[in-house]
Amino acid sequence: MFVKKYVVLFINLFLLLLISSESLATAWPKTRAEFASLPPYCLARQGKQIGLTVSEVEIKKWERILGGGFLHVHHFCAALNTLKILDRGTPKEYELQGVIKEFDYVLTQSPKNFPLIPLINVEKGKVLLRLNQRGEAVREFLNAIKFKPNYTLPYAVLSDYYVQYGQEEEAKSILEEGLKHSPKSKMLMRRLAKLK
After folding, report:
1. How much is the pTM?
2. Using one digit for the tens of pLDDT, what is the confidence trace for 30-45?
3. Closest by alpha carbon to 77, among 116, 118, 130?
4. b (16+ CB within 10 A) / e for 72-102
């Protein structure tokens, strides 16, 4: 009786750990439908490994475009896929921290000239905002701008952040800076027009 009680307790603890680890796990894309909602380099990097048909031409194309970072880009894809799943409910802090770890993995493992670095910075910054880590988020947006000054997304996201917190002058300033580097950006012009 005593042994049976502990066996049942052990099984229950094991199942609880199994369920908890599943909720902590990164949601790696597994189906064509999941890959369809992600950037095309995700399928090129990971599809063949899980049994999906991917042309060698497509794989080689993304290897050429992304360079050495292609080897690690599936962690970014997994983070994006995880966010899509988490956004169906109310994500917990540790789940969002897990997404940040995937972003950080790609940022630390990829070459310094990896072309997706500014996009990863922006996505990481958006998750940091959700975690109310505003200073770190702003730093990520500024890192993206520093890496690629003519990339308009970080200017737009940063200006939205400033507007949300009542810092309209900072929002105008960052939009004007972005327009110096990308003068035809409709995304930035629209935001600036709303602030005038």
Report:
1. 0.85
2. 999 999 999 999 999 9
3. 116
4. bbbbbbbbbbbbeebeeeebeeebbebbbeb
Three-class SS of 106-171:
HHHHCCCCCCCHHHHHHHHHHHHHHCCCHHHHHHHHHHHHHHCCCCHHHHHHHHHHHHHCCCHHHH
Give the model confidence (pLDDT) of 79-108 as tens digits.
Answer: 999 999 999 999 999 999 999 999 999 999
Rounded Cα distance, 122 and 145, in Å: 9
Structure tokens at 61: 């194309």
Count of CB atoms within 10 A of residue 147's CB?
Answer: 18
Tokens of 183: 């003068």
Q: For the chain, what's the residue count?
A: 196
pLDDT of residue 154: 98
Closest CA to 171 of 137, 144, 196, 146: 196
**How deeply is 67 buried, as exposed, middle or buried, from its count of CB atoms within 10 A (0-12, 13-18, 19+)?**
middle
> Is there a contact between 28 and 81 (Cβ–Cβ < 8 Å)?
yes
* 179 dihedral zone (left: phi>0; alpha: psi -120 to 50; beta): alpha
User: What is the spatial distance between Cα 147 and Cα 7, in angstroms, rounded to a whole number?
Assistant: 56
